[in-house]
Amino acid sequence: MGGVIRLIVLALLVVGCQPVDSNRNTLHVGLAQTPITVDSRFATDAASVRIQDFLHRGLVKLDESFNVEGDLAESWVHPTPLLWKFRLRQGETFSDGSEVKARDVAATLQAVIDPALASPRMAEYSAIERIEVEDDYNLTIYLSRADASLLTRLNLGILPATIASGPHNARHTIGCGAYRLTAWGESGITLQRRGEGGSVTAIRFSCVKDPVTRVLKLTRGELDFVQNDLPPHLLPYIGEQRQLTMLTRPSTTFSYIGINLQDGLLGDVRVRRALALALDRDKLKNALFSGLPDLANSVLSREHWASASLPPIPFDPVRAEQLLDEAGFPRNQDGVRFSLNYRTSTDPTRLRLATAIAAMWQKVGINVSIESLEWGGFYARIKRGDFQLFSLSWVGITDPDIYRSILHSQMWPPKGANRGRYRNDDVDRWLDQAAVVEAQKERKALYAKVQKQMLEDMVYIPLWYEPVIAVSGPRVHGFKPMPDGNLRALMDIKFIQENR
Questions:
Q1: By C-alpha distance, which of 149, 161, 183 is closest to 110?
Q2: Helix axis angle, 317-326 relative to 269-277, nearest 10°?
Q3: Do 159 and 200 fall within a single domain?
Q4: Claim to verify: residue 126 and residue 143 sit in the same structural domain
Q5: pLDDT of 18-61, one tens digit each?
Q6: What is the pLDDT of residue 485?
Q7: What stretch of H or E contains 259?
Q8: Rg (Cα) of the chain, in Å, rounded?
Q9: Would 89 be classed as within a structural domain?
Q10: Where does the secretion signal sit in this chain (predicted)?
Q11: What total of structural domains would you count in the chain?
Q12: In a designed cystine with 223, which of 30, 101, 107, 186 is the match (CB 3.0 to 4.6 A)?
């Protein structure tokens, strides 16, 4: 770490520390990855999801405790398990000036459930049978089956009907959010506030892949804000910079190792358990992440109402070796049992994590080849299930129906996010029941069964819940980090103008 800090100090001495921004009302936000799309129908990667909150609005939105409240919808009723009626607020407009009407909502939802569009979010809305527009401000959603989580997911960004009926356009959109897209270049995206309100008239999201460079830009004032894209080994240095403010809080972001359960080696649950037991997660989080993460046993954080009490995964390399022997994979003359391919992105933090994990597995006789890919290519392969092992994080988890998307046998790609192609008839049945039962107590009991079976089958290797780490420059005042990592509070921050 000392070497990295010395490099930062030398770089600062060379380039100086004067901010280069000429527009004092533009907020500069640093991202490790450029968003893949601004189309709400296709946004699933973390960077794209964060951008949605600025450009788009849904029928509903979620508060800090993940409770539903109205957004475009003024009110709604749910008279039967298969019927939802919504009334829209009047006077809400898109960035082109046209008013948001019920036909726009209907067109957006119909597009997402249309197999021809191939939206990656189609499975989330598969219970919708049809949408009827009653008039400009009223619509009815008919379901083919009860779906207890549908209301939570109706925060999907609404598009004008003319765009919603068209194909995916990653770099162009018209939304009804507080900001509109004005520029998309190689280095980032610029959003302009619509109308009056707030001191932040524009936001520039810049892609800065190298973490040391992100620190330099924060320190020099070229960036005003970075969240969760700073490796913890640089945090002590950041804490010493008087012009920077660092805030942390526990989050719902779940980090894990994904496994291809259809693979000839990894299809054996004993091998998967051995991989988990061979990982010293405490050592990993302390060495690589300054001890900040909370160890996880399942996707939902312990504070979530549907979270189950699960036994911790111990670090037990001796038992891991026994399981590998029992599975029929003894060490050969070179001490190697077999080899696995581990895919990750080119992000330095992810690479360090993959290298440390590979070293731990090497100690129990498993050779690991690490394949790092640029984000777009890496994520595309993961989405279609082209991997043996990979590491990623689930961000923005708000509803326990996430388990349906990642575990149900009907959610294999491209329909859903069961990328490891897990299949368990009991889990399918519990998930189907939990999707229609509206009583929270009954849902909690069903999801507890799902979580226990998921851990027993080691469908994923849980790592930890990543902390929210937000770092602001001297101009930014009033940002409050949120547990799901959303950046909506940036819309309401205040600029502190510096004396020149």
A1: 161
A2: 160
A3: no
A4: yes
A5: 444 446 789 999 998 889 999 999 998 888 998 999 999 999 99
A6: 83
A7: strand 245-259
A8: 23
A9: yes
A10: none
A11: 3
A12: 30
Are the beta carbons of 344 and 391 closer than 8 angstroms?
Answer: yes
Which of 133, 164, 195 represents a domain boundary (last residue)?
164
- pTM, entire model: 0.70
Q: Is the same domain home to 292 and 429?
A: yes
Count of helix runs (H) and strand runs (E) in the chain:
15, 19
Q: What six digits make up the tokens of 24?
A: 């004092």
Q: Which of 41, 34, 120, 30 is nearest to 375 (CA)?
A: 34
Burial class of residue 74 (count of CB atoms within 10 Å of its CB; 0-12, 13-18, 19+): middle
Sign of CA dihedral 19, 20, 24, 26: negative
* Chain segment 403-443, per-residue pLDDT in tens: 998 999 999 988 888 999 999 999 999 999 998 887 889 99
CA distances from 143 to 80, 127, 331 (A): 10, 5, 55
Query: Residues 104, 129: contact at Cβ < 8 Å?
Result: no
Could you tell me if 228 and 259 lie in one domain?
A: no
Query: CB within 8 A of 241, min separation 6: which ones?
Result: 218, 219
DSSP annotation of 386: -
Residue type, 255: S
Q: What is the CATH number of the domain that holds 12?
A: 3.40.190.10
- Round to whole Å and give the CA distance between 370 and 70: 46
The amino acid that residue 364 corresponds to is: V
| Cis status of the peptide bond prior to 211, with omega within 30 of 0 | no
Contact 364/324 with Cβ under 8 angstroms? yes
CATH number for 97: 3.90.76.10
Q: Which residues contact 333 (CB under 8 A, 6 or more apart)?
A: none
In the chain, which stretches have pLDDT less than 50? 1, 4-5, 7-22, 499-500
Within a domain: 477: yes
Spatial separation of the C-alpha atoms in residues 82 and 84, rounded to whole Å: 7
What pLDDT does residue 3 have?
Answer: 53
Domain identity same for 278 and 404:
yes
User: Considering the domain boundaries, does residue 267 fall inside one?
Assistant: yes
Terminal Cα-to-Cα distance of the chain (whole angstroms): 34
- Domain range enclosing 99: 57-164
CA–CA dist 190, 200 (Å, integer)? 12
- The reported pLDDT for the residue numbered 439 is 80
Q: Are residues 374 and 440 in the same domain?
A: yes
| Residue 49 belongs to some domain of the structure | no
Check whether residue 262 and residue 125 sit in a common domain.
no
* Helix runs in 116-200, H state only: 150-153, 161-164
183 and 306 assigned to the same domain = no
Query: What's the CA gap between 309 and 311, in Å, rounded?
Result: 7
